[in-house]
Write a structure and sequence with these properties.
The chain is an alpha/beta fold and 438 residues long. Helices cover 42% and strands 11% of the residues. Bound molecules: pyridoxal-5'-phosphate.
Length: 438
Amino acid sequence: MDLFSKRTQFLGTESAFKIGEDIRRCEESGMTVVRLNLGEPDFSSPENVNEVAVNEIRKGNTHYADPQGIVSLRERIAEQVSETRGIAVDPERVVVSIGAKSIISYTFLGYVNRGDEVIYPSPGYPIYESWVTFMEAKPVPLHLEESKRFRFDAGDLERLMSPKTKLIVINSPSNPTGGVLTADDLAEISQIILKKSDGNIRILSDEIYEDIIFDGRRHKSIASIPGMTERTVMMSGHSKSYAMTGWRLGYAVLPTAEEAMLFRQFNINFISCVSPFIQEAGKAAFENSENRTIVASMVGEFQKRRDFVVDALNDIAGIECVKPEGAFYVFPNIRGVCEYLGIIDAYETLSPEIRDISSPSSLFQMFLLYHHGVATMDRKSFGAIESEGQHYIRLSTATSMDVLREGVRRIGEAAEDHDGFREFFKRGEHFYLGAGED
Ligand code: PLP
């Protein structure tokens, strides 16, 4: 009898949590590493929010709480979502959980059977694909293309939908591309969904970057479109908007109170509840008007950094970078560099086993890290299925201007470093993250 269940072999991962080991190894060897891999704001959670949590702990608010989320926080979330999405939200449809990530797992567990088709963005947040394969559902990647500024249209979706489509995941603003869907995109996409499905399909709308949006744009949600509120699991949370990643606070607005009850039951089975002092602090994040200024200044900083990095990357021969409209990442096309340094040809000479877990962009990622001391994420970290031939890396702008300047300078050097790549490839040690770990 096997120790682990069969399913565990289908569970994916989030490389952003894996790269730390490789960075540590580089630093131990004496290198200084410029970290452009980070998936969290480099700002601290607002002091007024910290104060609330500490005071609540001191007051003894340290016991189990309502598994669905404390009523006052659910009311505040309902109000906030109603105001920003222009829809009526009852607190009975809100469920508070551990980070937004838990909502992804509950959605898959709650709606998807083995063999159901799930459409999800690729490149996209890797946990979507991980859950598709873990549930033994059929992955249907929706390719986001640079030529469309990493948006997609109704036609793209229509081609992928079938009577077996059970769940469609959308993520705007997007990780890793920074692409943002417009109100018109969402209206057209919704028409297709309504035309091609019955009421038993769900849209998981991951809106975790809703506040990190640039050039005066305003976030649009598919849940705002008539007919879609009833089909959309809208998820968001405090991690990115309020730089509260370590607090683990997220929430969903479900189409019905019955579905919220199921998510509540998942909470009971997995976590019991979110710590009450964290929920009180989360409420303060919404309520204290000071936080609007704090969020706006953080977003302004991300926008400045984006402007700098995109221009600086486009100045490097072999790199082309679309200007993202939201989130705190840039997703440059590195095909030219891969061709110039001979990375694509070198990759083809690797054994099928290594090719399977690597890619040309992974080789460039590892070359950047181990030879030039810059940590980035490769294309394959954002959905491996059907990612062949796509040569991109993700850089995070969640770091200071000085660090970004140095990072881009090193990338520029690496992009011309023929001899360095030859040497790196000959050494053959680090063709993918975690190589040689055990
Ligand atoms: N969704 C996307 C698109 C993300 O990028 C992330 C985190 O990086 C999450 C969800 C998870 O958010 P949380 O940290 O609140 O679980």
